[in-house]
Specification:
Elements (H helix, E strand, L loop, with lengths): L18 E6 L3 E7 L6 E6 L5 H12 L3 E7 L4 E7 L8 H8 L11 E10 L5 E9 H8 L7 E8 H6 L9 E5 L7 E6 L2 E7 L11 H26 L7 E5 L5 H9 L5 E4 L13 H6 L10
Parallel strand pairs: 1-4, 4-8, 9-12, 12-13
Antiparallel strand pairs: 1-2, 2-3, 5-7, 6-7, 9-10, 10-11
């Protein structure tokens, strides 16, 4: 799901098979460059969020980055709210949603860019949609450095969809435990290539610094509680078939320990998420990689 599907007066018509995935974080950004005839490269650049546009431009010049670019916003740059779907034509939805959610988010309608993906249909037939919004003013600061000198900004999306794109499309529901380095953990439930549920947890940003003993005392219990709450909501409130597996992508030294500890408190399989072929070593760049895989997901709506 791309937050901005098209910006006609910005995108170039030049086609390229080179791919670039850029993921923004609070104190750094990462990119995955996949040139057609060269070796892929990964970089993580330390930089405050406000300085990312300038730093991205410097890296583009330094590494001669070019091709189709996919940008993943940091969690602090977007808000996701669930609302009843208005009974109006699809062509009028975006304009109407700005006013429907204006009191639920921190952006004014005039500064709001939004997109949406289908939510569950609850008992009684009420159809929900999940609205993803961001600041137009802030997004514009990233469009210039990612739309020049051989770069074509193709999509802007969120961590949730970048992570979900790494999962093999399957009929059974899967819960994903995801994290970018030094960011908060995200819980996703994905089924048939669609994001059915997402939650951004707080208090787990420094989980990578925890020892195995520290994980065993409190951290795992708290994470298991959040997983159980999400599972219960999906299965009981949304009346969905049980989750069949849990996939973990939390790049840290004790990632295998984390998965093993989680498996001790559930009766479904808990696995370390398998990265695309040849990229098993790039787990900390999973979001940047996932951004380039979005076309592999089934349409959301």
């Amino acid at each position: 799901m791309s937050l901005i599907k098209k910006i006609n007066n910005i995108f170039s018509k030049v086609e390229s098979k080179d791919l670039l995935g850029v993921s923004l974080r609070q104190q750094s950004f990462a990119f995955f460059s996949c040139p057609e005839e060269k070796e892929s490269q990964f970089q993580q650049i330390k930089s405050p969020l406000a300085e990312h546009p300038q730093q991205i431009k410097l890296q583009q010049e330094k590494y001669q980055l070019q091709g189709i670019c996919h940008l993943v916003l940091a969690s602090s740059q977007t808000q996701i709210v669930q609302v009843d779907k208005p009974n109006i034509p699809e062509s009028e939805l975006n304009a109407a949603l700005k006013w429907q959610i204006k009191d639920l988010v921190n952006y004014s309608p005039e500064d709001m860019v939004l997109d949406y993906f289908d939510g569950p249909t609850l008992a009684g037939g009420n159809e929900k949609i999940n609205v993803v919004c961001a600041s137009k003013k802030e997004l514009l600061t990233f469009i210039e450095p990612l739309s020049q000198n051989g770069l074509i900004l193709k999509s802007i999306t969120t961590e949730e969809f970048a992570f979900a794109s790494l999962l093999v499309v399957q009929n059974d529901a899967c819960l994903m435990v995801c994290q970018q380095p030094n960011e908060e953990i995200i819980l996703l439930i994905v089924k048939q290539g669609k994001v059915f549920f997402s939650r951004r947890l707080r208090g787990f940003a420094q989980i990578a610094t925890k020892t195995e003993e520290e994980l065993s005392y409190g951290v795992i219990d708290n994470l298991n509680l959040e997983i159980q709450r999400s599972t219960d909501y999906f299965e009981r409130q949304l009346k969905q078939a049980p989750i069949r597996s849990i996939e973990v992508i939390v790049p840290m030294a004790n990632e295998a320990v984390l998965a093993r500890k989680l498996s001790e408190n559930t009766n479904v399989a808990v696995n370390l998420l398998t990265m695309p072929d040849g990229l098993a070593h790039a787990r900390e760049f999973a979001v940047s990689v996932g951004a380039t895989q979005l076309n592999n997901m089934e349409p959301i709506s």
